[in-house]
Amino acid sequence: MSPKKILLFFLLFVLAGIFTFFGPAHEIPLKMVKIPTGPFIMGSNDVPKADETQGELGNKKPFYLDEHPQRSLSLDDFYMDRFEVTNEDYHRFIRERRRKPPPYWGGEIYPSGQALLPVVEVNWYEARDYCLWLGKRLPSEAEWEKAARGPDGNLYVWGNEFDGSKANVSAGSHGNIMMIGRFSHDKSDYDVYDLNGNVMEWSADWYQAYPGGDYQSNDFGQQFKVAKGDAYGESGHYALSIFSRLPYRQNVAPETRLPFLGFRCAKDV
User: Fold this and answer.
1) 78-81/250-252 β-pairing
2) Which residue from 215, 128, 267, 83 is spatially nearest to 249, judged by alpha carbons?
3) Hey, what domains does the chain have and what are their CATH numbers?
4) Beta-bridge partners for 250
5) Which H or E run contains 124?
6) Residue 171 DSSP SS3
7) Coil, strand or helix: which one is 256?
8) For the whole model, what pTM was predicted?
9) Is residue 63 a contact partner of residue 221, using CB atoms and an 8 Å limit?
10) In Å, how far are 126, 192, 210, 212, 261 from 218, measured between CA atoms?
11) What whole-number distance in Å separates Cα of residue 86 and Cα of residue 25?
């Protein structure tokens, strides 16, 4: 073999080794962000105050107790949608898969001017199917909470003090659903938007007691799915700042459609 050919093979061998060692840059899926592995705080140890002992308004479960105990968890890397799924996004799904549109559309297309509003009135099964259609999945409750609370376990994406002006939440009296990403403060440490407000979001998980929790409920089991995050001002009696806390757990029957409940997707790395 000639010296030139030997040199060429040597160079190719070196380049192949470099490529194997460093690998190609892992491309983040479109409109998603990577949530890195590592510990985070989930749940809370908060207890009801004197005027909060009668249970949540419109709900038979007491405040806080189903969030116990607060604990540190660690998850592997995963991807999360940067924004909530919009009417425009969902329209492609129902068109290509010939699925029924949400009732409020009133037809096969979303109302004019609402392309970038979160899609709502989608039940858990439809949200799951949308994510699977894209090769994704609904986020687990733990994944959602990590993406929202960040490494410091914030009660709100911006910190631990409530401020109704920083997100489209019930107690902020903003009054209506809004375009995704409108509130710059409602952005987590990982650049995920609208986790604190705009619409509540389905998670993948059944409403169950946390490991080590001492609160018992007949609602635990495979009856209700967990929804996370607060919603805009028309979410009725939930116009209290307590429902904006990121550890808060809403239990919703999977067949339910609500005008303030949407979703986003996650994906394994």
Assistant:
1) unpaired
2) 215
3) 32-268 (3.90.1580.10)
4) 227
5) helix 124-133
6) helix
7) coil
8) 0.86
9) no
10) 26, 34, 14, 17, 23
11) 29
